[in-house]
Q: What sequence folds into this?
């Protein structure tokens, strides 16, 4: 695969930035990446509302141009999203949808240009602070009806914002919207043209992007300041959508990836594989979850598996006693699990059937049981202030009180399609609908 990095304006000089310690202190108050500050779905310092509707506890609602399934991230007083806007400009030579061959799931390839945009909104008012177009071009393939051309969530280290549009490239901005660099990526083909979606992650001075697909799967490490390639490694994988996890363990900074053939841990510095473990199933989407000195990986399409794996392992541990525990039923297809207070929460496939495991033993604490008021789920559950929030595609969120009884505190509905995961930050909860972003807060209008 050929990668070309383009630095804008030649040399880029950056203003003084927060130290790693300052970032570590601040991130627990924010939601700087997919799955939040701990990569577990928990907001340790948030206390969002438990009740809302289209008219209750609404601080603001902002209309988002275009279409995207990426989840919002929040840093200080700013909220960031990505979207793709169909310009309607027909590209010469592109085949109109009505003239294209039939494909499974009625997937059509675009014949018009799209603007791939990054949105920044004021957290307190919902007003746009800036919107930047990363690139405008014709997508090379379509996507599943439940996916989008902008499904990867952004991430930030408090200094810069990192955004992936898959085959449309990686882009970096300062928090005021100035483009600092872009990194062009080659086109890849996803399974049945489902589309791309794995989110980038940043650690220190390195940004990681996993591109599992049908043509040339890779993991790529970029310099966070310049976008230049530090290393890239081929992966013996087919299409998957799981976002990687970066964690300090066993004396190394590890990048843990979840996919169909193998869970792998890479050395962040070199890209070398530290350990690996087979046993996942197809179309892997749930992200790895850190727990103590281990990691939990799961998948749920055409089979079910969840495994707790040791981060101090080396080599291939498939089928060995190194695996702490393994569970083999009712795991999720699209949503990632939630880990809070030693309990692992997840749903079956994309259905509202809940299982809770003891994360230490892998034993069932509750379930499987149907969650009343919910139907299908793509959004991943989140937790804050001793509560768990599950949101359905139909716009309904059930809020549970943590505890053995899992008391239902409230059932809240907005009449909207909600596939993106919620972001609880401070006293607020951010929820992305089909074409709007909601901010809920106690005392809102």
A:
């Amino acid at each position: 695969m050929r990668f070309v990095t383009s630095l804008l304006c030649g040399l880029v000089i950056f203003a003084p930035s927060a130290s790693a310690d300052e970032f570590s202190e601040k991130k627990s108050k924010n939601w700087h990446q997919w799955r939040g500050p701990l990569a577990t779905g928990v907001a340790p310092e948030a206390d969002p509302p438990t009740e809302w509707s289209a008219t209750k506890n609404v601080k603001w609602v902002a209309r988002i141009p275009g279409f995207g399934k990426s989840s919002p991230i929040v840093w200080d007083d700013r909220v960031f999203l990505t979207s793709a806007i169909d310009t309607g400009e027909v590209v010469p030579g592109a085949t109109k949808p009505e003239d294209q061959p039939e494909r499974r799931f009625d997937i059509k390839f675009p014949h018009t240009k799209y603007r791939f945009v990054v949105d920044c909104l004021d957290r307190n008012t919902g007003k746009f602070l800036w919107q930047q177009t990363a690139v405008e071009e014709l997508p090379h393939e379509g996507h599943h009806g439940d996916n989008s051309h902008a499904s990867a969530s952004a991430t930030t280290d408090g200094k810069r914002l990192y955004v992936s549009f898959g085959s449309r490239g990686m882009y970096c901005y300062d928090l005021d919207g100035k483009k600092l660099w872009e990194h062009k990526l080659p086109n890849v083909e996803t399974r049945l043209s489902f589309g791309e979606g794995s989110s980038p992650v940043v650690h220190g001075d390195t940004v990681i992007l996993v591109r599992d697909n049908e043509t040339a799967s890779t993991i790529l490490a970029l310099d966070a300041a310049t976008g230049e390639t530090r290393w890239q490694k081929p992966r013996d994988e087919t299409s998957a959508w799981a976002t990687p996890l970066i964690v300090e363990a066993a004396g190394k900074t590890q990048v843990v990836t979840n996919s169909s053939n193998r869970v792998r841990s890479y050395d962040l510095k070199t890209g070398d594989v530290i350990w690996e473990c087979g046993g996942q199933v197809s179309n892997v989407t749930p992200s790895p979850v850190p727990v103590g000195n281990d990691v939990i990986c799961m998948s749920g399409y055409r089979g079910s598996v969840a495994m707790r794996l040791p981060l101090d392992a080396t080599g291939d541990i498939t089928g060995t006693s190194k695996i702490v525990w393994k569970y083999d039923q009712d795991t999720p297809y699209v949503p990632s699990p939630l880990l809070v207070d030693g309990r692992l929460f997840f749903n079956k496939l994309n259905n509202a059937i809940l299982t809770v495991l003891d994360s230490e033993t892998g034993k069932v604490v509750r379930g499987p049981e149907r969650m009343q008021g919910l139907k299908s789920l793509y959004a991943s559950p989140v937790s804050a202030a001793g509560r768990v929030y599950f949101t359905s595609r139909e716009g309904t969120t059930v809020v549970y009180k943590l505890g053995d009884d899992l008391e239902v505190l409230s059932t809240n509905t907005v009449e909207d399609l909600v596939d993106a995961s919620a972001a609880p930050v401070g006293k607020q909860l951010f929820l992305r609908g089909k074409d709007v972003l909601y901010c809920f807060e106690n005392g809102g209008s």
Remarks:
- The radius of gyration is 21 Å.
- The domain at 241-365 is CATH 2.40.128.630 (Lipocalin).
- Helices lie at 20-27.
